[in-house]
Amino acid sequence: MKRSRAFAGVALATTTAAVVWWLGAPHFLSVDGAEPRQAQVSATAPTASPGLRSSPRPMDSSFFAARRAASPDQSADPLLVHGLRDTLEALLMEAQADDTADPATLKQRLAGLVGKHFPAALATRALALAGRYVDYRVALGQLRTPQDLTDPGALRESLEARHKVRQQFFDGDEYDALFAREADLDRYTLARLEIARNTQLTPEQRTQALRDADNELPEARRTERLAATEHLTAAAQTAAFNAQNTDERTRHAARSTQYGEAAAHAMAQLDRDEQHWQQRLDQYSQARTQQGDGAALQQLRQQLFSAEEQQRIDAALALRQLPPAASGS
Question: CA 20 to 30 Å from 208, out of 53, 78, 158, 288?
Fold first, then answer.
């Protein structure tokens, strides 16, 4: 039960952190510790923003509007591709290497660096987009952080406020390339948080609500989420097997059904490796208790463990001495 509560607590903390990553980020483009300067773009539609295309596709008016059918993972525009945001962040990071540049100076530096991050054919458009991205990051720093990051209502308002800022600087296609993948997960994570905090739901209703939230998440995002958390699920399953002394045949049957035959064999080998590691730790620990730290123990240490493993011995033995709650067991 303690383990279940611990996993639930970690999941809730991770969920909240995923939704509000942008809220906890350090102020960008601040000067000498001062608050970021106000963006030099009004709160109106971005029709006059530099570098915006003449016929932009408008963004949805609300962050929680029904999703468009178009996939953000596929774009015919060579500039507006997945990874664009990472490239812009890398460009800005290089331009602000001394951490003292104000927005105007930063934009001047971008002109000399954009060619290192974008092909020549895209450099002009990329530079204009990067300039607006600077203004966006400055405006983002003006938003107020919710006092309670676990309050679904406060997070909902904050996500909507962030969306309105993005509307000022980017059209719909640009938004898809820069933010749509993150936004899909934000909506999903907030939905799960709202479900978790809703005390009016019965267990059956909560289960159904979580299933509905999973179904709302686009298939590509579900695949990414499963890939990112699968190792945690597998580790929790192995810990449960170990606690129950589950035999190898039962483990293999469960794993092959859930992860496939090849993965089940690989996980079985990890089980054997872990068991062998623990047996060698037992042998070494007993010898140290009986003989003390001396030349014989040092020789046994070298016989039992590789050079890399020897760096883990003391920490592994210390972990054994912790009470179950502290060691995570």
Answer: 158
Locus of tokens 């992860």 = 259
CB 20 within 8 A of CB 150: no
The crossing angle, in degrees rounded to 10, of helices 203-216 and 181-197 is: 170
**Could you tell me if 29 and 37 are in contact, meaning their C-beta atoms sit under 8 angstroms apart?**
yes
Work out the number of other CB atoms within 10 angstroms of the CB of residue 58: 11
- Asked whether the beta carbons of 255 and 264 are under 8 A apart, the reply is yes
In this prediction, residue 69 has a pLDDT band, given cuts at 50, 70 and 90, of very low
Q: How far apart are CA 56 and CA 216, in angstroms?
A: 27
CB 161 within 8 A of CB 143: yes
**Element at 94 (helix H, strand E):** helix 84-95
Q: Is the dihedral of CA 67, 211, 190, 222 positive or negative?
A: negative
**Residue bearing tokens 């000399």:** 112
Query: d(Cα 150, Cα 153) in Å, to the nearest integer?
Result: 9
Dihedral, 209, 214, 217, 220 alpha carbons, nearest 10:
180
The string of pLDDT tens digits covering residues 221-262 is 777 776 666 777 788 888 889 889 999 999 999 988 887 898
Q: What is the DSSP letter of 48?
A: G
Residue type, 34: A
What distance in Å separates the CA atoms of residue 99 and residue 33, rounded to the nearest whole number? Answer: 10
What residues have CB less than 8 Å from 99, skipping those under 6 apart?
A: none
What is the distance between the alpha carbons of residues 290 and 208, in angstroms, rounded to a whole number?
Answer: 58
